[in-house]
Design goal:
The protein is mainly alpha-helical. The protein is built from 10 helices and 2 strands; from the N terminus they run ααααββαααααα. The chain has helices at residues 3-22, 26-37, 42-67, 72-96, 111-132, 148-165, 170-180, 185-207, 215-236, 241-263, and strands spanning 100-104, 107-110. Strand 1 and strand 2 (107-110) form a beta hairpin.
């Protein structure tokens, strides 16, 4: 095991902590770790990310069931369209993307590069949106009825995103649940984990007939992430909601910048 791999496995533990704290964001760390530290193809990396994030989120969900923070009806409304979207994306869209997406002069944008750049763009948009709305009061006592139709549409979009870049979608799900389902940030974090579990594992299942999976490697990575989940969920109960939301957005922005710099070799 070389030095970069050691850092990568430590990153697996951090991935779990982030998911436990923020109810998402695990893929924001997992995908770059697989691509830049373990030198995996982004298509394989996104598949492994879905397994790790989905498995870790499942453990986090079991922990949160005891805390009674999960909004099950909202989770169902969000998850149903997302499952259809993620499965079709992994089975149909990803295999049919061209190897070279476009060229700009002598600069070639490959499928793998395009997916990573799209991933970073989604992170930037979501973190900006989260920061802009960081002062919104999310208590269920003061906010009006949730918007189920909008949640269905966002669920479709999250499923597409999960399929394209291996992201569980927590960095979109959490803000959506806060703003449109009218949940508190801690309810949104807990509810997002059950949504992420379903999205990620269905997406990974769609890949099983298309990719060869290194089960030993990905299982070890997932086990380390699960350890982090326990730490993260404990820490989340000690942190104020406003601080949690702001730091989540800042973390996402930093990771997006790192990905862009790596892809353009700055």
């Amino acid at each position: 095991m070389n030095f970069l791999e050691m850092i990568g496995f430590f990153g697996a533990f951090l991935t779990g902590i982030i998911m436990g704290l923020f109810g998402g964001g695990g893929s924001i760390l997992a995908v770059p770790i697989f691509v830049y530290l373990f030198q995996l193809n982004p298509i394989i990396a996104t598949s492994y990310s879905m397994f790790v994030v989905g498995f870790s989120a499942a453990i986090g969900t079991l922990i949160n069931i005891r805390k009674q923070l999960i909004e099950y009806k909202t989770a169902f409304i969000f998850t149903l369209p997302a499952l259809v979207s993620v499965f079709l994306t992994r089975r149909i869209i990803i295999p049919n993307l061209p190897d070279i997406v476009t060229t700009i002069g002598s600069f070639v944008i490959t499928k793998e590069m395009a997916l990573m750049l799209f991933f970073s763009l989604m992170i930037i948009l979501s973190s900006t949106f989260m920061m802009h709305n960081s002062k919104i009061e999310t208590s269920s006592k003061t906010i009006s009825k949730r918007n189920d139709r909008l949640l269905l549409l966002i669920g479709l979009g999250v499923g597409l995103l999960t399929g394209l870049v291996g992201a569980g979608g927590g960095f979109i799900i959490v803000p959506a649940l806060v703003l449109f389902a009218k949940l508190s940030i801690k309810q949104a974090v807990a509810t997002s984990l059950i949504i992420i579990t379903c999205n990620s594992l269905i997406g990974f299942t769609a890949d099983l007939v298309l990719l060869q999976i290194d089960w030993r490697f990905v299982s070890f990575f997932a086990a380390l992430s699960v350890l982090g989940i326990f730490v993260g969920t404990h820490l989340s109960s000690l942190v104020q909601e406003s601080i949690l939301k702001t730091n989540f957005a800042r973390f996402m922005m930093v990771m997006a910048v790192v990905i862009i710099f790596k892809e353009f070799n700055f």
